Amino acid sequence: MNDESRQALIADADETLLELVDHVLNKGVVVSGDVMLSIAGVDLVYLRLSALLCAADRIWVSGTKR
Amino acid sequence: MSPVLLYAVLAEAPAGALPAGLAGEPMRLVTCEDVLAAIGDVTSPPGLDAASLRAHDAAVRRLAAASSALLPARFGSVALDEGQLREALRPRLAAFREGLRTVRGCEQMTLRFSRLETAAAAETASLPEPPAPGGSPGTRYLDARRASLGDPRALPEVRRVLDALAPLVRGERRERHDRPPLIASVYHLVGRDSLEGYRTAVESAARAAGVRVTSSGPWPPYAFAPDELA
Lengths: 66, 230
Fold this sequence. Notes:
The structure holds 2 protein chains of 2 kinds. Chain A is mainly alpha-helical. Chain A has helices spanning about 5-10, 15-25, 35, 45-60, and strands spanning about 40, 40-45.
């Protein structure tokens, strides 16, 4: 996922999608998907998740939550 | 060798036909001793985009609706083939069995706690240092960051709500947040026959505690899967 598409995902995020991101990415059984999504030992799944959740917090703070 | 996408780990086969997977591919079950894995055959990991996330969740929900005990996989968990999948699952079978016992007959409900505007405090915990090279830095960083924030039960308004809900809760996972007004997320396992009572109890407990609580669910028990296999 490149920066542009990540920004698009965040920009389009509504509360439901943010909840979905948290649930689907934040936990759950993991096998080797992380390996396939890593480069040079950096786990991109977690880094992406961290970026998305930070964005989620900002959106909640900004008052879009119903 | 054909890559497989893991959707969930199950205690037994779901009732009825298996649903379609994320990309519409037929889902199928593979056995690892006494545990089943619901998988789809894929050519590459799914892209991280909103449509794929929704499709993954929808597929897991269809599975969960026909199952009494299921542990969802994290989005994008891909193994190179069935053999690699079994190798990845086998060391964690005991944890899966325990997890499946815990979630049996339950749904996950998620609570987001926010301070009311009048009570909001500029409280920002200091973040841990960035991760050192080697290992799984992303995982370690997030773990360290969570640990540095502490248990949200230390917040009186959160503790009051959780104590009031305790009789309806069969499992709980808590995370404190450092971005006010969002102060905590709490994930609960609730019996499928107790969901209505739980929702009512959340509303009254939040009013009594003077905190804003938004609940969502029922979800498949994403928060109650054993820790990652890495």
